[in-house]
Amino acid sequence: MFDLSGRVAIVTGTSRGLGQYLARALARAGADLVLTSRDHKSLIDVTWDDWNLILDTNLRGSFFVAQAVARHMVEAQYGRIINIGSVTSVAGYAGLGPYGASRGGIRQLTMSLAADWGRDGVTVNCLAPGWFRTEQNKVMYEDPKWVEYLKDRIPLKRPGRPDDLDGAVVFLASEESRYVTGQTLLVDGGISTGALRALVQEPTA
Questions:
Q1: Which CATH class is domain 8-188?
Q2: Where do the domains of the chain lie?
Q3: What is the pLDDT of residues 15-54, one digit of tens each?
Q4: Catalytic residue of the set 78, 93, 99, 149
Q5: Taking the model in full, what pTM does it have?
Q6: Which of 22, 86, 122, 163 is the one with CA 20 to 30 A from 14?
Q7: Is the pLDDT of residue 176 over 50?
Q8: Is the distance from CB of 120 to CB of 75 less than 8 angstroms?
Q9: In this structure, what is the dihedral angle of CA atoms 37, 19, 146, 189, given to the nearest 10 degrees?
């Protein structure tokens, strides 16, 4: 099961972070890879141009990459498109407005593309990681208080590891996912459930 031998996987965003890990997972499953990436710009202070950059990269870029590969998939009457979303596709987080807007758009885009291309044998799904330590955000995970704060809100009580995504991405790329389309698969340790630990109340006299 989940054998991708003889398949070609085009993976974008492989210069760093989770994109690299997803590419490796697909390669281990037997897929031949075509890798693409771009350089990262600093987004410390979000400007008009920064907003456009985030939306252009995450949302517009996802659409036009999907459109380009779908032309060949429709002709072949077979294809698997996996858009990369985030837990911010389904939940709001302070300070992540433009990023969350782009990832939420990807979730909606996924459903529209699935409806358009399903008749042609092409499935379109969204893989949405939760909080994973990557090169871009590693400074956050060097703060013990932040890590404890995060773990307290994740039912599985730890941030994600890159290999936690392996099974999900290979499944969505495989023949076994043939009847799954238009879905957002959250791999987030359960943080999207909104679970919070109840505070224990001390008895009053």
A1: alpha beta
A2: 8-188
A3: 667 777 777 888 888 877 776 655 447 445 667 777 777 7
A4: 99
A5: 0.81
A6: 122
A7: yes
A8: no
A9: 150
Are 38 and 16 a contacting pair, CB within 8 Å? no
Do 122 and 74 touch, CB atoms closer than 8 A?
yes
CA–CA separation, 184 and 180 (whole Å):
10
Residue 10 near residue 62, CB atoms below 8 Å: no
**Residue 28 pLDDT:** 83
Listed in sequence order, the residues at least 6 apart from 196 whose beta carbon sits closer than 8 Å to its beta carbon are 152, 153
In angstroms, the Cα distances linking 124 to 106, 114, 197 are 11, 5, 35
Cross-strand partners of 200: none
- Only one residue has tokens 């002709």, namely 75
93 is catalytic: no
**CB 73, CB 56: distance < 8 Å:** no
For tokens 């009580």, what's the residue? 157
SS3 36: coil
Q: How far apart, in Å, do the first and last CA atoms of the chain sit?
A: 61
Query: Which run of H or E residues covers position 79?
Result: strand 79-84
Could you tell me which residue, 43 or 69, shows the higher pLDDT? Answer: 69
Read off the tokens for 27.
């390669």
Question: According to the model, what pLDDT value does residue 169 have?
Answer: 94
Task: Please report, to the nearest 10 degrees, the dihedral formed by the alpha carbons of residues 173, 176, 177, 178 taken in order.
Answer: 110
